[in-house]
């Protein structure tokens, strides 16, 4: 019994010594940590932030064009947000028709003129019927027939821009495409005092770069909803059938006012029948700017 007690006592003493040793360890570690921290504050810390401040100071005082040091370049690195790509521009709208909710409206459009043969005949028919239409004019044709441009405006029709020389815009640089449009704008404005708000690309097609160029010129791109294919010699009854089939309220009808005379005689004959036929259906004839709620001319 005594032996057992003595043995237990030894075990207890050994355990107490071990615990004391364990307690002594933190007591030794603490001053070491304090010393290490004090050393960092006194010796290391002053250098790090100063290096950054010096770099900024030298950046501010660096003369323009001076070669940046490596440190400065590192500081100048733009924030991550600067690398985020800009959102794409909204797609450029191409108008094919007006709004059906505006009622039974239709816009007659005549491209490629003016000329001295078909254009005056078309103007006579429109005048006799008290109809305002829209003429998408080619710049060099305007230059050749300025009186016709003035007559179109005087009789209350709208004018759109249809390029200077009717090239396929797909084969032009954006710069050349812009020049085709701007030269025509200038010519029309010089002749008739209006600067069109509408552009219709020759053959109706434009890639995105050129669409953006038209938007930069503050113009609307206008195609059509009904192509009479009058330029291809479609007969007057077929033009009427085609319009009957494809026209709906807000529609824009494509015809021509310059080109081969034989073909345009069909255009003229068809127009004389088309006007009463559409009136009978309840259609009102409006210009494209009116149909699309756009101004007639750029201010
Ligand atoms: Zn054309």
UniProtKB/TrEMBL annotation:
Recite the UniProt keywords alphabetically. Hydrolase, Metal-binding
Family matches, as InterPro entries: Glyco_hydro/deAcase_b/a-brl (IPR011330), NODB_dom (IPR002509), Polysacc_deacetylase_ArnD (IPR050248)
Which PROSITE patterns does the record cross-reference, listed alphabetically?
A: NODB
Region (Disordered) residue spans: 1-20, 57-87
User: Which residues does the UniProt record annotate as the domain NodB homology?
Assistant: 104-286
Identify the SUPFAM superfamilies for this entry: Glycoside hydrolase/deacetylase
Name it: Polysaccharide deacetylase family protein
Q: Which organism is it from?
A: Paenibacillus glycinis
Tell me the lineage of the source organism: Bacteria, Bacillati, Bacillota, Bacilli, Bacillales
């Amino acid at each position: 019994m005594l032996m057992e007690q003595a043995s237990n006592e030894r075990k207890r003493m050994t355990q107490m010594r071990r615990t004391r040793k364990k307690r002594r360890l933190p007591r030794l570690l603490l001053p070491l940590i304090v010393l290490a921290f004090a050393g960092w504050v006194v010796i290391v810390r002053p250098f790090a932030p100063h290096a950054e401040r010096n770099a900024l100071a030298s950046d501010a005082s660096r003369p323009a064009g001076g070669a940046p040091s490596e440190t400065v370049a590192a500081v100048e690195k733009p924030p991550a947000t600067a690398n985020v790509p800009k959102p794409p521009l909204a797609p450029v709208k191409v108008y094919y028709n007006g709004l059906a909710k505006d009622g039974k409206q239709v816009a007659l459009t005549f491209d490629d003129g003016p000329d001295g043969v078909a254009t005056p005949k078309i103007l006579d028919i429109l005048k006799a019927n008290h109809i305002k239409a829209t003429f998408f004019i080619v710049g060099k044709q305007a230059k050749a027939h300025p009186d016709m441009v003035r007559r179109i405006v005087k009789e209350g029709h709208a004018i759109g821009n249809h390029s200077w020389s009717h090239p396929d815009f797909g084969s032009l640089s954006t710069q050349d495409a812009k020049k085709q449009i701007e030269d025509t704008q200038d010519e029309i404005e010089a002749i008739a005092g209006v600067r069109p708000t509408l552009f219709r690309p020759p053959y109706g097609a434009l890639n995105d770069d050129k669409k953006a160029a038209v938007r930069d010129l503050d113009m609307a791109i206008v195609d059509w909803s009904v192509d009479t294919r009058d330029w291809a010699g479609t007969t007057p009854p077929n033009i009427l059938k085609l319009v009957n089939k494809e026209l709906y309220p807000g529609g824009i009808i494509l015809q021509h006012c310059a080109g081969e005379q034989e073909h345009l005689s069909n255009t003229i004959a068809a127009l004389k029948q088309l006007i009463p036929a559409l009136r009978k259906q309840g259609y009102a004839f409006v210009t494209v700017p009116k149909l699309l709620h756009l101004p007639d001319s750029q201010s």
